[in-house]
Amino acid sequence: MAPSGPGRVRRRCRRVLYWIPVVFIGLLLGWSYYAYAVQLCIVSMENIGEQVVCLIAYHLLFAMFVWSYWKTIFTLPMNPSKEFHLSYAEKELLEREPRGEAHQEILRRAAKDLPIYTRTMSGAIRYCDRCQLIKPDRCHHCSVCDKCILKMDHHCPWVNNCVGFSNYKFFLLFLAYSLLYCLFIAATDLQYFIKFWTNGLPDTQAKFHIMFLFFAAAMFSVSLSSLFGYHCWLVSKNKSTLEAFRSPVFRHGTDKNGFSLGFSKNMRQVFGDEKKYWLLPVFSSLGDGCSFPTCLVNQDPEQPSTPAGLNPASKNPENHQFPAKPLRDSQSHLLTDSQSWTESSTNPGKDKAGMSNPALTMENET
């Protein structure tokens, strides 16, 4: 028990240190509220109408900012479901077998009924030794949380949480509302900031709050705009930050746009089908985070296309059509409501077999 005591203390100390960026943001937000609502609006603004409009708009943005930030911090990341965990017997087999083909054969048998289509760079089944589970598509192990996180984007120190399937929408709204919050403060504070330099403000402590408030809002606006723009691009391409740096690997090879279904469907996968919830930090993303529909292979013009004169249907059948494994209903319906996704002949007696779409190239685990 003695060796575990210092380890627990270190872990607790790290947990406390991880909250420092969140506390910093909270203190900064509290000061900005005092500086804007009290020192700028109430003390410095002389026009009553301007005060009312600014205070109402400010409190609306402030509330949405805090709400989305809170949800991003305290929404627990989702972990793979039990079906991806190995049974006790399978764990025993893995421990006895050396790493190699026999090791992979055990994992292939365990994964044959799972909706997974991505592989490691070497083509092996993606397996987490620490969590002892087969990783679902887009799932990665977070070294900070020490857990496998569904559709992991990154671990964000500013929210002390992993950003993944369960809170990625909240994280996007947090970026959006924090950017609007800073832009609104900078825009409404600008005229008083100019008065500060032209000695048009009375010599009170309010003038220093106004000056520093403008500087802080302007600087955060620049950094937040670039970060928000980058994540908007990721959503439009249906990529995570990790996938932008390392493209997912399927059985047919690397495909950097493998999960992209088109702009509209990519947006709906994150924000959901009901637009009334898009701007609210309430969970509305589609699916369960364990399985995702994939798109056509090599649709990116930067990737190799089919050689001229070669019919794709005449390619090696092992690389042509892979029977699709069942996807969750909320995911698979994304593929059935657009003209760009044509269906092949279906057997009405096999509804539970999932999608029978030749336009989709899925991974065959056999």
TrEMBL record:
It catalyses: L-cysteinyl-[protein] + hexadecanoyl-CoA = S-hexadecanoyl-L-cysteinyl-[protein] + CoA. The chain crosses the membrane at residues 16-36, 48-70, 170-188, 208-230. Keywords: Acyltransferase, Membrane, Transferase, Transmembrane, Transmembrane helix. The keyword Zinc-finger does not apply. Its EC number is 2.3.1.225. It is a multi-pass membrane protein. Residues 297-366 are annotated as: Disordered. InterPro entries: Palmitoyltrfase_DHHC (IPR001594), PFA4/ZDH16/20/ERF2-like (IPR039859). It is found in: Membrane. PANTHER family: PALMITOYLTRANSFERASE ZDHHC16 (PTHR12246). Belongs to the DHHC palmitoyltransferase family. This is Palmitoyltransferase.
